[in-house]
Design brief:
alpha+beta, 250 residues, Nonspecific Lipid-transfer Protein, Chain A, 9 helices, Four Helix Bundle (Hemerythrin (Met), subunit A), globular
């Protein structure tokens, strides 16, 4: 997805989130975020939008304090803060529009342009919308192109070799014969763990283990928002479980 679609998707996903959980109990636990209530999750989402907006608006090249997405406790007795969430999403999208995709900003590793924050918070909002739906007990669905783009971003970030320095345990994934395929009717991905770094590509391929499902199911699987059970797995299921155990992100 291009820059304008990404920044627009921040608003779209927030609109879908607030509409989907209208009337939900903010005290409900979030199964995919242990220890969090729905209210805490929503404060995290809205705080994240405002934090990213400040980085883009000020063109900060430094990591700004992110207390607003870390300090999550608050009053969960009220209603879903729809207008507050939508205001933060619109503000971030508009600030990104004004900056354009190439504005220099802080970002992790070498992602030091505003386009990264547009992409990251579009997909961040998608996944946290799934969390909110789980907490509210409502169905989560996502457009096919959005789900595919979210999976592409996850793959790109997960294979960064810097992760080996941050978490040496991740190097345990590498080994001969270790390949994984994710297949949906509309798109597929291939993960190669056989070299000295992790590699991935789009497209079908034979693999040591293949998991098949809808794009939504595959997205929730790699983000560990749903279990493997219920998906079609062929080949070395233990490799799939080992991989999922080592790729926590988001």
């Amino acid at each position: 997805m291009d820059f304008d679609r990404l920044r627009a998707e921040i608003v779209t996903q927030t609109e879908l989130l607030t509409a989907g959980i209208a009337g939900a109990d903010l005290r409900a636990p979030v199964p995919s975020c242990p220890g969090w209530t729905l209210g805490m999750l929503l404060r995290h989402i809205g705080g994240g939008h405002r934090w990213a907006e400040e980085i883009v608006r000020t063109r900060s090249l430094e990591y700004l304090p992110d207390d607003q997405l870390r300090e999550l406790h608050g009053d969960d007795a009220g209603e879903v803060p729809t207008q507050w969430l939508l205001a933060g999403a619109h503000r971030l999208s508009e600030t990104l529009r004004d900056a354009g995709p190439d504005a220099p900003t802080w970002g992790p590793f070498d992602f030091n342009r505003s386009e990264f924050l547009a992409r990251r918070f579009a997909h961040e909002t998608v996944v946290h919308r799934a969390d909110a739906c789980l907490a509210a007990g409502v169905e989560f669905t996502v457009a096919e192109d959005v789900a595919a783009a979210s999976l592409d971003e996850w793959m790109e970030l997960d294979v960064l070799p810097q992760h080996f320095e941050i978490d040496p345990r991740k190097r345990e994934l590498l080994g001969p014969g270790r390949t994984i395929a994710l297949q949906a009717p509309e798109a597929s991905w291939f993960v190669d763990l056989t070299g000295d770094v992790i590699r991935w590509r789009r497209g079908p391929a034979d693999a040591a283990v293949t998991v098949r499902g809808s794009l939504t199911d595959l997205l929730l699987l790699v983000y560990r928002r749903r279990p493997v059970e219920g998906l079609a797995v062929t080949g070395d299921a233990s490799l799939l479980a080992f991989w999922l155990d080592h790729v926590a992100f988001g």
